[in-house]
Every structure is written in structure tokens, then in C-alpha cells.
Write a structure and sequence with these properties.
Distance between the termini: 30 Å
Largest sheet: 4 strands, mixed
Strand content: 15-25%
Number of strands: 4
CATH topology: Rossmann fold
Strand order of the largest sheet: 1-2-3-4
Number of domains: 1
Oligomer: single chain
Structural class: alpha/beta
CATH architecture: 3-Layer(aba) Sandwich
Shape: globular
Length: 91
């Protein structure tokens, strides 16, 4: 488990390389995912929380073998609502 720091997230391409070297599952907000420019081939599960994931962002990160899950909930609360896997072919 890697707890991301604000400095790590703002590191741009270096953040992508850090993820690629160590991570197969990640939990992020969609706005943070938008800042990652390079694909992270090691990612198999991408969980997005806190805000709506735009369709173009989901399409950009979609890869065979990678699942993208979205979870909407109230800020500073544990995950309490069911999550949904995103599909590029509909809900």
C-alpha cells in the first residue's frame, strides 16, 4: 500500500512511473486521474470516488483486463453506497 502525498500527485510523469513500478490497484478522485498523463500498464483495478467520472476519462483509461469502478459518497465518510463498474457500452 502506498499512501500518496500531495507532492507525489503533483509530480506529473513521475507519479505515473511510481504507480507503474508498484501498483495494480488504486483509489483516486477523477480530477487526480485527469492529471496523470501516462498510462500505468500495471493497473488492473481503478476505483474512482467522490465525483463523477467523465466518459472521455473512462475511455482514456480503459484497457483490456482493467476494471474501472466508480463510487459516489459523502465526503469524509466511509464507503457506504454500492459501487458500480463502468462500461464503455452503457451502464
Amino acid at each position: 500500500m502506498i499512501a500518496g502525498t500531495s507532492e507525489m500527485i503533483r509530480a506529473g510523469p513521475e507519479f505515473s512511473r511510481t504507480l507503474a513500478a508498484r501498483v495494480s490497484r488504486v483509489v483516486l478522485r477523477a480530477d487526480v486521474l485527469m492529471m496523470i498523463e501516462e498510462d500505468v500498464p500495471s493497473l488492473r483495478l481503478l476505483i474512482l470516488g467522490g465525483e463523477i467520472c467523465p466518459a472521455d476519462l473512462a475511455a482514456r483509461w480503459h484497457r483490456p483486463g482493467r476494471r474501472i469502478m466508480t463510487h459516489m459518497g459523502r465526503p469524509r465518510r466511509p464507503l457506504s453506497r454500492p459501487a458500480a463498474f463502468l462500461s464503455l457500452n452503457g451502464p
